[in-house]
Specification:
Layout (H helix, E strand, L loop, with lengths): L1 H7 L4 E3 L3 E3 L8 H14 L5 E3 L3 E3 L19 E5 L9 H10 L3 E5 L9 H9 L3 E5 L8 H12 L4 E3 L10 H9 L3 H16 L16 H10 L2
Parallel strand pairs: 1-3, 2-4, 4-5, 5-6, 6-7, 7-8
Helix pairs in contact: 6-7
């Protein structure tokens, strides 16, 4: 049902990324996940493709992640995340280590991490990290949501993801919101072109800062009142 709904909203490829701790990356049985994904692909609606991958928690520094089957769709990109309890002091060094191993770290939802800042995210980008935001965080409230909108305004997001866990989360509402802000081209870059480039091992296209006449929060409230 989730795949059918996503397809109706214009999504044609989904990266399947079950959670995995880096300290257990050598223990996971890749073949079992591949078999599950093959069965899901058989049941998926026509026109929907499923890509392999994991969302890897960097629970311990120095763990090797260049095992076949851990990356996104067989590319060099590997989706990683930090504990929400707080960023480790060596976060940049760990991402640089992964980059030096021949992989491209894609850091998931940086706006959620305690201790993160716009300056730190820019530092990660400078060492070759792809920045993936949680799309629906842009439509939320609180400090994390404010940081997410600041990151969008600052042009530091490379891609946006639905972070769907078998629920109703999607990219459709955010795409509509961006269009309302005059950022339709931003939406195409963040949810179509750059995600395609991640899976194809191609360089990210820069996503320019999103300029706006009125505050994003004001436009969001207006859109929600119109529902």
């Amino acid at each position: 049902r989730v795949l059918e709904r996503l397809l109706s909203e214009g999504v044609h490829e989904v990266a399947c990324t079950p959670h995995l701790n880096a300290s257990r990356a050598l223990d996971v049985v890749i073949e079992e996940y591949a078999a599950l994904r093959t069965e899901l692909q058989r049941l998926a609606p026509e026109g929907m493709r499923l890509a392999a991958g994991f969302e890897i928690m960097l629970d311990r520094p120095g763990c090797p992640l260049n095992r076949p089957g851990l990356t996104l769709g067989g590319s060099r990109a590997v989706l990683v995340e930090f504990p929400r309890s707080g960023l480790p002091a060596e976060s940049t060094a760990e991402l640089l280590r992964i980059r030096a191993s021949g992989l491209v770290p894609v850091i998931a939802h940086p706006e959620r991490y305690r201790g993160v800042s716009l300056a730190l995210v820019r530092e990660w980008r400078e060492v070759g990290v792809v920045i993936q935001g949680d799309a629906l965080m842009l439509l939320s409230s609180g400090e994390m949501a404010q940081l997410a909108r600041a990151m969008l305004e600052g042009g530091v997001y490379d891609i946006l993801a639905s972070d769907n866990h078998g629920d109703r989360r999607s990219l459709a509402t955010v795409r509509l919101w961006l269009k309302e802000l005059g950022g339709e081209a931003h939406g195409a870059l963040l949810t179509e072109e750059n995600p395609r480039r991640v899976l194809a091992d191609e360089a990210m296209l820069p996503v320019p800062p999103l300029r706006r006449e009125r505050s994003m929060w004001q436009r969001l409230k207006e859109m929600l009142r119109g529902r």
